[in-house]
Write a structure and sequence with these properties.
The protein has 13 helices and 11 strands. With 529 residues, the chain is of the alpha/beta class. The longest helix has 39 residues, at 7-45.
Length: 529
């Protein structure tokens, strides 16, 4: 016999089962933690039995509704006890579980605040967001790739549109098998704009490792009693009172002041050292709100406002600005200084204090999520230093190309001139971009995983936070790229069958950036379907 009132329950049963399976471990831990509190509450409210009139007959659907309501109330209470929830919507407990199950990797677009020598960062959780109105399946593990003809039929008309200009290229690769499923001029080298940062990220992680940290220090010259603020090329060093987990200039000043006070020094000559980086400080695009002059010593990316991302007016000399702020913090701590000037710390100088950035994995994620040009150019220079090249634009470009060749990636036609993609002479192919993403997804290379976890999530984070709000939100993760006449998009997407696909779309000679952007978004959304 079929009870009509139970049909909605039967229809919803698979989804409820998945939800129960997903939350069961957390609920079990929460129930165990809450059991003593529940016992005390039960004892407190216990009363003697009361004889009540016989209740009226209740229908089947009322039993079902009541049970469901009680179950949801219990679940809500247990989850509340299990909390807390962080700003990105992922419970701390889930991060702890991920740390226990997987090797180290990037953090979830956040700031760790971990000091050097602390445990390595917990890996980001795998993509769990379900596209709005799309499949609820998990990422598949089957080896069978999606149908290439179906992909071609879906993508061809979407990419062959006037909005994408006179020259465009595309490629789609199954990350699990490495098979290329779609290609349209995929070997044509075009201007990549900010998708260049994917290559910079892979090269930096390969050369330095995901746990590498960038250190800013102070050094005291033994003979002249000169204090030198030594730039370590940390683009995330901040002078804000609330550091958000990044290395703080105020903390460095406080520790330095304590070290000087122990030596009985309360007035000192202050200098700053920027010799770690070489070459021109100004990018070929000139003075620009998208990038400060590049220096081994800078705070808050040389921004003249309180912003932490996006375009903003920049100071003309980031190192002098940083040293001046540092002098002010020393003064607040009781140490008087001369007006700071450039110098170079000798090998005999004694290090008094130091602050270090979070691991490189976090810097890579911040760079990709926010399309941060300052971080990209700094990482290109650190890649150069690790590769034996001068730490300038040319050395960084050569080092990036060298690291990618070592990984066996398809470099035909590729040309690098910076790490950020602001240089219009940069050239990448769709084949290389998809190969970079597939390499980052290789289980044998966990150190490259921050390249994938750092990609903006459609409709949720970074440069994609306001895109895909009407489709494929949560399923597309991609790096955007925009210059005048250039629109690019490269990232990953989960299709309806649960396959993880890497894609790259590049378009040149576009005339309407918003129309071109919308066309690329429609193509990525089609992959999700």
């Amino acid at each position: 016999m079929v009870v009509p009132e139970l049909r909605p329950w039967r229809a919803a049963r698979p989804r409820v089962a998945r939800i129960v399976a997903a939350v069961r471990p957390g609920l079990a831990r929460a129930v165990t933690a809450a059991r003593p509190r529940i016992a005390r509450l039960t004892e407190a409210v216990r009363v003697r039995p009361v004889h009540l009139p016989r209740p009226r007959t209740v229908r089947t659907w009322q039993y079902t509704a009541g049970a469901a309501t009680a179950g949801l109330a219990l679940a809500a209470g247990v989850v509340t006890v299990a909390g807390p929830w962080d700003a990105n919507g992922q419970r701390t407990a889930e991060r702890d579980r991920a740390a226990a199950l997987e090797r180290s990797g990037g953090a979830d677009h956040g700031r760790s605040g971990r000091a050097a020598g602390a445990p390595r960062p917990a890996p980001s959780a795998a993509a769990v967001l379900t596209g709005l109105g799309a499949t609820t399946g998990a990422v598949g593990t089957k080896k069978t790739s999606p149908d290439a003809k179906a992909l071609s039929d879906a993508l061809g008309p979407l990419l062959d549109v006037p909005a994408l200009g006179g020259s465009h290229a595309a490629a789609v690769v199954d990350v699990t098998t490495g098979e290329r499923l779609y290609g349209a001029d995929s070997g044509k080298a075009l201007t990549p704009a900010s998708t260049t940062k994917i290559a910079t990220a892979v090269a930096a992680l390969s050369a330095l490792g995901p746990d590498h940290r960038l250190t800013t220090r102070t050094a005291l010259e033994p003979d002249t009693r000169e204090l030198v603020l030594v730039g370590g090329g940390d683009p995330t060093l901040t002078a804000h009172a609330r550091t958000g987990g990044w290395a703080g200039l105020r903390a460095l000043a406080a520790d330095t002041a304590k070290a000087l006070d122990r030596r009985g020094i309360h007035k000192i000559t202050l200098s700053y050292d920027t010799t770690l980086f070489t070459g021109p400080a100004l990018h070929p695009i000139g003075v620009n709100d998208n990038l400060a002059p590049i220096s081994a010593l800078t705070v808050d990316e040389g921004r003249t406002d309180a912003s932490t991302e996006g375009p903003a007016p920049r100071v003309g000399d980031p190192a002098a600005d940083a040293a001046t702020r540092f002098a002010g913090f020393l003064k607040d701590a009781g140490i008087a200084t001369t007006a700071p000037g450039p110098s170079k710390a000798s090998t005999r100088a004694e290090t008094l204090a130091r602050v270090s950035s979070p691991p490189l994995s976090e810097l890579v994620e911040r760079m990709l999520t926010n399309s941060d040009n300052d971080i990209a150019e700094a990482l290109a220079r650190h890649t150069a230093l690790a590769s034996g090249q001068p730490a300038g634009f040319d050395g960084g470009a050569k080092a990036i190309a060298t690291q990618l060749r070592k990984l066996g990636l398809p470099m035909a036609g590729a040309a690098f001139h910076d790490g950020s993609g602001l240089n219009r002479d940069d050239r990448l192919t769709a084949d290389l971009l998809t190969a970079l993403l597939a390499k980052a997804g290789d289980p044998a290379r966990p150190g490259l995983r921050p390249v994938l976890t750092g990609l903006p999530v459609a409709g949720f984070t970074g440069t994609l936070s306001t895109r895909y709000t009407d489709g494929a939100a949560g399923l597309v993760r991609a790096k955007t790229g925009t210059l005048t006449g250039v629109n690019t998009l490269a990232g990953t997407v989960v299709d309806k069958a649960g396959h993880l696909l890497a894609f790259a779309f590049l378009a040149s000679d576009t005339t309407d950036p918003l129309e071109a952007q919308a066309a690329l978004d429609r193509a990525a959304t089609a992959l999700a379907g």
